[in-house]
Design brief:
InterPro entries: Anti-sigma-factor_SerPK (IPR050267), HATPase_C_sf (IPR036890). It is built from seven helices and 15 strands. The protein is α/β, with parallel strands linked by helices. It folds into two domains: 127 residues, Transcription Regulator spoIIAA (2-Layer Sandwich); 134 residues, Histidine kinase-like ATPase, C-terminal domain (Heat Shock Protein 90). It is globular.
């Protein structure tokens, strides 16, 4: 598993599942991040880990729900402020909305520390969702619905070609086509459901990157497995290399739960040799 992504967020099976949950809305690309229980060193580590993974996905926004968090001394406040600052510094910026009880010690401390300069505090998650829905969607975004057929990877590669031409990032095309192809084939073979592919542009100029997202209806997160030798011997393998290829070709990749399945994403940024 050494080639596995550090950005996998599961419903269960890891140390964060009992107290922290992150779920993405595939229509809006907004992640809802919830944390509950008594704030201590262990929960702090868990929350920071998952929050970092959420921001690594570069969503359009993150809603942080703290209604069930017990933090009477408000010691978690710096983490939420830091997340807001990190989101604001990304290109394009990631909006971070914090939802907490209006009169809770944590809410009062966030206001004292200057939260008004970084974020708007919401009393309910519904209010934060409405605010996020009012934000302008990503202008540079292409979408394609595909059947659960490995051959659909050809259409996904065509979508990447269209995006590279439209956004003048042809130098990212080779690796992006490879990555999206592997993600679509993996979804078709293992999930067996309809697949949605979303390609969007992150940043601009020499810092531009392609964000590739593949959504399917199976909640089981992908695993990087050891390759299975092919019929011609161990020098030629025909199974198990898909996510290892993604790991080698993408700048970062990961997966997280969606409302009715999962989303596997990858970011392809320029490498020095591609800029010459």
């Amino acid at each position: 598993m050494s080639a596995g992504s550090p950005h996998l967020i599961g419903w269960s099976g890891d140390s964060v599942a009992d107290s922290v949950l992150a779920v993405i809305d595939t229509d809006t690309a907004v992640i809802e991040f919830s944390v509950w229980g008594h704030w201590d060193r262990g929960l702090s580590t868990q929350a920071r880990t998952v929050l970092d993974k959420c921001l690594a996905e570069h969503p359009t926004g993150v809603i942080v729900d703290l209604h069930e968090l017990s933090d009477p001394h408000a010691v978690s406040a710096p983490l939420w402020l830091t997340a807001c600052a990190q989101g604001a510094a990304m290109q394009p910026p990631v909006a971070v909305a914090v939802c907490a009880k209006p009169n809770a010690p944590l809410t009062r401390r966030l206001r004292r520390l200057g939260a008004r300069d970084w974020l708007v505090l919401y009393a309910t998650v519904a209010q934060a969702r409405a605010a996020m829905a009012g934000r302008h969607p990503l202008a540079d975004r292409m979408h394609l619905a595909l059947p659960p057929d490995p051959a659909a990877a050809v259409l996904a590669r065509g979508l990447v070609n269209d995006a590279c031409r439209a956004w003048d990032v042809g130098h990212l095309g080779q690796r992006a086509r490879l990555v999206v192809s592997e993600l679509v084939v993996n979804a078709a073979e293992h999930a067996g459901t309809d697949v949605e592919v979303i390609v969007s542009l992150r940043g601009s100029g020499t810092g531009a990157a392609l964000h590739l997202a593949v959504y399917d209806g199976d909640a089981i997160l992908p695993q990087v497995r050891d390759p299975v030798p092919g019929r011609l011997g161990p020098s030629l393998v025909d199974r198990g290399l898909g996510l290892r290829i993604v790991n080698a070709a993408a700048s970062a990749w990961g997966a997280l739960p969606a409302r009715s399945g999962k989303l596997v994403w990858a970011i392809v940024r320029a490498r020095p040799e591609e800029m010459t």
